[in-house]
């Protein structure tokens, strides 16, 4: 696990890296196919993300649903996916490694103080993604549910380390 925050022009970027023991094609499918994405990500996608153009990403928090306009800016399978999420930009880079895939998420946002919150959320999502890829899905953990799975402790730890 590697995380850092860096300036990105007038904004900030959380760089979040995970080594995954699965080939890029499998990770790509989990990032782009709505049925897989909804099992680990903080949002559902209104369509497959493997092609550029507009899409609706729906934030899910218990019974609450919030539609957010998004645009897939780049979709270069199975290496690079870049899309907006509200005012943020998510850039997912997949690099093949001898053991599988190095996944690098670059989440660009406003307000540096949000970095520990995002890092804690992506940490939980990445843990769920690993289980999904390993064939032992634990079910999506997002929104309020993340509080029951260590989100607050992660946020506090990231506040110190970032």
TrEMBL record:
It holds the Pfam family AHSA1. InterPro entries: ASHA1/2-like_C, START-like_dom_sf. Transmembrane segments: none annotated. SUPFAM superfamilies: Bet v1-like. Residues 22-133 form the Activator of Hsp90 ATPase homologue 1/2-like C-terminal domain. Belongs to the AHA1 family. This is Activator of Hsp90 ATPase homologue 1/2-like C-terminal domain-containing protein. It comes from Winogradskya humida.
């Amino acid at each position: 696990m590697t995380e850092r925050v860096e300036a990105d022009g007038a904004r900030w970027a959380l760089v979040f890296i995970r080594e995954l023991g699965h080939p890029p094609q499998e990770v790509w499918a989990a990032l782009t196919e709505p049925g897989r994405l909804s099992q680990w990500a903080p949002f559902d996608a209104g369509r497959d993300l493997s092609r550029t153009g507009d899409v609706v990403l729906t934030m899910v928090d218990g019974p609450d649903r919030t539609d957010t306009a998004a645009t897939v800016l780049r979709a270069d399978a199975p290496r690079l996916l870049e899309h907006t999420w509200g005012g943020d930009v998510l850039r997912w880079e997949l690099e093949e490694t001898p053991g599988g895939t190095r996944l690098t998420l670059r989440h660009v946002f406003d307000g540096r103080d949000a970095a520990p919150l995002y890092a804690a959320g992506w940490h939980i999502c990445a843990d769920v993604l690993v289980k999904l890829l390993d064939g032992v899905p634990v079910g999506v953990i997002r929104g309020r549910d993340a509080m029951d799975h260590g989100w607050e402790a992660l946020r506090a730890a990231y506040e110190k380390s970032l």
